[in-house]
Amino acid sequence: MRYLVNSEEMKRCDGNTINEFGMPSLVLMERAALAVYEELVSGGFDLSRVLVVCGSGNNGGDGFAIARLLHLSGKRVDVLFAGKPESLTEETQIQKKICENYGVNVGSNLNISEYTSIVDALFGVGLSRNIEGRYAALIGDINRSGIPVLSVDIPSGISADSGHVMGTAVKAAKTVTFAFEKIGHILYPGSEYCGELKLCAIGIDDRGFMGQVPGAFTWEESDIPKLLPERKAYSNKGTYGRGLLAAGSRDMAGAACLAGKAAYKTGTGLVRIYSEDCNRQILQTLLPEAVLTSYRKGEEGAALADALQWADACAVGPGLSVSSEKLEILQTIIRSGDIPAVLDADALNLLSVHMELLEGHRQPLILTPHIGEMARLTGIKKEELILDLPGYCHDFARKNNVVCVLKDARTVVSDGKSIYINTSGNDGMAAGGSGDVLCGLILGLLAQGIPPFRAATAGVYLHGLAGDDARRRCGARGMLAGDIAESVGAVMSWDTEDGRASQAK
Ligand SMILES: NC(=O)C1=CN([C@@H]2O[C@H](COP(=O)(O)OP(=O)(O)OC[C@H]3O[C@@H](n4cnc5c(N)ncnc54)[C@H](O)[C@@H]3O)[C@@H](O)[C@H]2O)[C@@H](O)CC1
Ligand SMILES: Nc1ncnc2c1ncn2[C@@H]1O[C@H](COP(=O)(O)OP(=O)(O)O)[C@@H](O)[C@H]1O
Ligand SMILES: [K+]
After folding, report:
1. What is the dihedral sign for C-alpha 363, 369, 374, 376?
2. ipTM of this complex prediction, to 2 decimal places
3. Is 247 in contact with 259 (CB distance < 8 Å)?
4. How many C-beta atoms surround the C-beta of residue 140 within 10 A?
5. Whose CA is nearest to atom 16 of ligand 2?
6. Residue-wise pLDDT tens digits, 214-268
7. Which residue, judged by its Cα, is nearest atom 13 of ligand 1?
8. Which of 71, 203, 306, 456 has its CA 20 to 30 A from that of 367?
9. What would be the CATH architecture of the domain defined by 241-504?
10. Closest C-alpha to ligand 2, atom 19
């Protein structure tokens, strides 16, 4: 698990490290500068002529220290001081003075095109408003120059809190950040502006939060074993849960099949698909392992109560279609009481015009909207939602007492308390049916007893890893949702020797 911090959390952690543990600010700055220096000299950048662009905040202080380290190692380096002298922080003033004492050329009007590499130390996590005027012009010049840029901490102009471009932003080839990744490094478009992201330790760690931990986190590879449901040699299919999937309709059997397959691939003991009669043959052919309960059009609901009694967890929505009968199915599931349920796709479309169904619900609910579905659920425009995915996801989850999985290239999950931001997956997953696979994956984890928020976050992370595995096998363009479902088995065996070996190939 890695924390993803916003600017306020980072500043609090910096401040505690300095004021409570007594670590001098200049020592942290020196370590930050050394980390960037190491990155610069380790290759990848042509250091024949380096320009370090410094602002007056502590990001600029890092920049002055980097310039001095480069100068002392014999590199030709100049500093473009773009900040206001009267705004220099105490540390940055000291770093600037040291540079000048060593004879580093510090100018305010240098010709950018003469340089082979640029170090961007204009603004870091202290960026507090949109960039305008001469700063905006300078960033425009840097981006137009085509000269490779290394950004210090975060590309200048990217909000550490949201990943948004604050007016304009530096496009970096590489970004070296310190102590923790910021939310703005992970969310788009910030993630693209960072180029390659390198995280470096500088002597600040989570003790610096002094018990007030950050609100956002992401899973990483070392977490996989603890995210997977347990397997036992002494077991049978009853040991691994029963998942009920209400999905599929005429012409939409595929969604039920993909979700059902993904649920089985997580290791679930039994998956029952509750679907229209017309899908019977196709589902039996495509997923013979599934138990089927089918209903004729107009007779929905009859066998659903029994199926719900039987199940440990339920998912509803993939390919369900929208009609008054389907609304009854959704209603029966939400009113049924206590088993955890995933509401996806058409279940969300039905819900968006019947939000009263969520009032006073008793069982844990996981809702998995993509941005279009979230717009219908909340009445908030898509363009507005993308400005703050974590905030809207968190507020929706808290207000409705659900776990919200807000799907996008960086999916965000919240239970109204914590925020999870996903870092696995790839653009090969941007194709029809990927969401059905996610729905089934979460259902499988729930059926095996994983608690809802853990099942949702682990499901999203493992889904992305399955997408990464599918891309390795089929390529981003060639992979289909079925390939992601196929790869779920590989990521679910990561905790075994066989699984790790096959991933390493
Ligand atoms: N000791 C520490 O606290 C450490 C800080 N570090 C560096 O310090 C950075 C944070 O430093 P600061 O908090 O001083 O902030 P920054 O250096 O990011 O920038 C703040 C300055 O920019 C101005 N500013 C903000 N938005 C602006 C805009 N749109 N247009 C014009 N001016 C704008 C502010 O008024 C302020 O003067 C980190 O990103 C990191 O690079 C590192 O050296 C590690 C240790
Ligand atoms: N560019 C991308 N990078 C990573 N994941 C992606 C990307 N595009 C889509 N995905 C993932 O694929 C899934 C798509 O789900 P959804 O939009 O419901 O598709 P569908 O309805 O076709 O199944 C989501 O889990 C989403 O996070
Ligand atoms: K920067």
Report:
1. negative
2. 0.95
3. yes
4. 12
5. 435
6. 999 999 999 999 999 999 899 989 899 999 999 999 889 999 999 999 999 999 9
7. 126
8. 306
9. 3-Layer(aba) Sandwich (3.40)
10. 435
